[in-house]
Structures are given as structure tokens and as C-alpha cells.
Amino acid sequence: MNKAILIGRLTRDPEVRYSQGDNSVAVARFTLAVDRRFKKAGDTQDADFISCVTFGKQAEFVEKYFRQGMKMAAVGRIQTGSYTNRDGQKVYTTDIVIEEVEFAESKSHNPEAVRDNSYQKDFGPEPSSAMGDGFMNIPDGIDEELPFN
Questions:
Q1: Which of 19, 94, 107 is nearest to 66 (CA)?
Q2: What's the CATH code, domain 4-106?
Q3: CB count in 10 Å sphere of residue 1
């Protein structure tokens, strides 16, 4: 099994390019700064900087909604490869090919998203403050139709 689950912050805005040919596909590359679980006494928190790539609709989603500093939860697989650079030396690569992404914090924790209002434009208005907890009220008489009790 080859599965990687990451939660980290984007080090910069995702870089998106499109493949050549008739069926061009979006390819998004980004780096996640993932905090290490433990730190030595007196040291600052260490992080690993993990190269990630995603394709197609997922790449377009990442380009549209994620920016530098945002916290992302990502699921994918580890992929290794190699190429020969201009100097003729073989270079080995390791990337996480991302298959799923999710927001890992609310927009209130990310001032940039609040400032440009991007979440609200694409996902509709904020829940009414009268509801308080952010959950919608279930209409009366619908109890019998719910899949749980």
C-alpha cells in the first residue's frame, strides 16, 4: 500500500501549467510545510517541506481556492523518479501525487481569504448569526424522512 496523508501550509501559491496536446490537463505543483510531530526541548518546531503535484480538476480546484499560507489536508501517494540534468548528472525526485484535498482551517484563521472574500463568492453567504452554531435548522415534519434517528 502506498498512501500519504499530510496536513500543512502552502509555502507559496500553487503553480499551474497545462499539458500539451489535444486533451490538455492542468498540472498543479506546490510545497506543503508539514510540522514534525515532536521537537527537542528548547528547540523551535521543525517542519518538512514536501513537494506535491496534482492533476486535472483537482489541480484547477487547488489553483482557484488555495493560496500561500493556507492550511491544507491532502491525501495521495508517494512517487519517485529521476532525470538527467544539464550537467549530465542523474537527479532523483520524490513527490506526493495528491488525489484528495480539503481545507484544514476555517477562513477566520486565514486573514487573506477573509480579505478577498473568495470563500463567500464561491460557496454562498455566511450562515446567519441568528443560527449561532453554523448548522441549518431541520424543518418540522421531516423527521420520518431522515436516514437516522
A1: 107
A2: 2.40.50.140
A3: 3
Q: What is the Cα–Cα distance from 11 to 62, expressed in whole angstroms?
A: 14
Q: Is pLDDT larger for residue 81 or for residue 40?
A: 81
> Which region holds residue 62: left if phi is over 0, alpha if psi is between -120 and 50, else beta?
alpha
The pLDDT tens digits of the residues spanning 36-80 come to: 887 777 777 789 999 999 999 999 999 999 999 999 999 999 999
DSSP state of 134: S
More confident residue, 96 or 36: 96
> What is the reported pLDDT for 122?
42
Q: 3-class SS at 144?
A: helix
Break the chain into its structural domains and give their ranges. 4-106
Q: What is the pLDDT of residue 144?
A: 58
Cite the DSSP H helix spans in 21-97: 56-65
**DSSP code at position 138:** P
Question: Which residues contact residue 18 at a Cβ distance below 8 angstroms, ignoring those fewer than 6 apart?
Answer: 24, 25, 26, 27
